[in-house]
Amino acid sequence: MQDFVFMAQPSRVVFARGSLGLLANEVKALGARRALVLCTPQQREQAQRASDLLGEMGAGIFDGAQMHVPIEVARRAREYAKTIDADCAVALGGGSTIGLGKAIALESSLPIIAIPTTYAGSEMTPIYGLTEAGAKKTGRDIRVLPKTVLYDPELSTSLPVGMSVVSGINAIAHAAEGLYAKDGNPVMSLMAEEGIRALAGGLKGIVSSAFDSDARSECLYGTWLCGSVLGHVGMALHHKLCHVLGGSFNLPHAETHTIVLPHALAYNAEAAPDAMRRIARALGVPSAPEGVFDLTKQLGAPLALRDIGLKETDLESVCRISMSNPYWNPRPLEEVALMKLLRNAWSGQRPAT
Ligand code: NAD
Fold first, then answer.
1. pLDDT 10s digits, 210-229
2. pLDDT digits (tens, 9 = 90+) for 30-57
3. Pocket of ligand 1, candidates 42, 97, 245: which has the most ligand atoms within 8 Å of its Cβ, to mutate?
4. Model confidence, pTM
5. What domains are defined for the chain?
6. Within 13 Å of residue 121, how many CA atoms lie on the same side as its CB?
7. Which residue owns the Cα nearest ligand 1 atom 7?
């Protein structure tokens, strides 16, 4: 057994079909009385339902959440929270809306109730991101960790199948890298392996039948596990590459994670054999990188960076930027091997380990 330090992060998790109906009680349990509901324009209707359920405690809806939390949007939302005298915020949506809630909490310490409707996992982490003048900065601060998380599988049923698949593989990526994290621990490894198992099975169920409520439930359960792993331990090469591809080349978040993951795992396979064994066991396959690639293909998700807008001529810049700030990875960063990884991910070739 490797030495470890484990510090649990405090959040209350309520997981139940129809748990949106418990929202008013959860607001009261925080000692709050005036809730601001946050959402994207696309999810206004779901946010309105939440606000209606709050009755007099529904103080207002801000429906301007956007991808990558632009600082101007965060400022407007903070102002609105002050104007309506909100004493808590309910973030209903995916990582973008929960990110907006975190941006408000960072300045005001307003307690956040997160109601995730995708599988990204942000609700379980103290990590925030803010975009200013085109540059996304991320940080960790325990004040942004949602105080309460309501997981209601019924709310994710409306997430289109294609988005569900890439969002679920985004969550699997948190767990996969958590298994070889420098600061990993046995509790997170258990959660990671179970999270990968739950999501892989749940996603197959959703692809067969988008409204299969057991499959939706299984995916959201996996989301909780994988998001917890992301919140507790550090990530490595895979997350760094995706951050560069999203931040500097504007590639879509979940799709990028989906495409890069098997190749990042292939890069790290020899350096992290125990993690690979656990990922493969969770997927019921002999090899982790190939297994993740085959799962992605089976689920009908994109397999090549060239298909989501990356130019071949950008590969060298991606490699250079990714190597410019050293960070921990089980295998040291080697330029030639990293370029091979990127070329394979760009063309969508099945990794071979
Ligand atoms: P998203 O929040 O950007 O949502 C994408 C779109 O799907 C939005 O229009 C949203 O309204 C819509 N949507 C969400 N749920 C829906 C549903 N059930 N039905 C119909 N439409 C729905 O996407 P995401 O992938 O969840 O989040 C991505 C963002 O989250 C990125 O900016 C990423 O960096 C961030 N993120 C942060 C963390 C963290 O720990 N801080 C973790 C994961 C992701």
1. 999 999 999 999 999 999 99
2. 999 999 999 999 999 999 999 999 999 9
3. 42
4. 0.96
5. 12-156 (3.40.50.1970), 161-347 (1.20.1090.10)
6. 30
7. 94
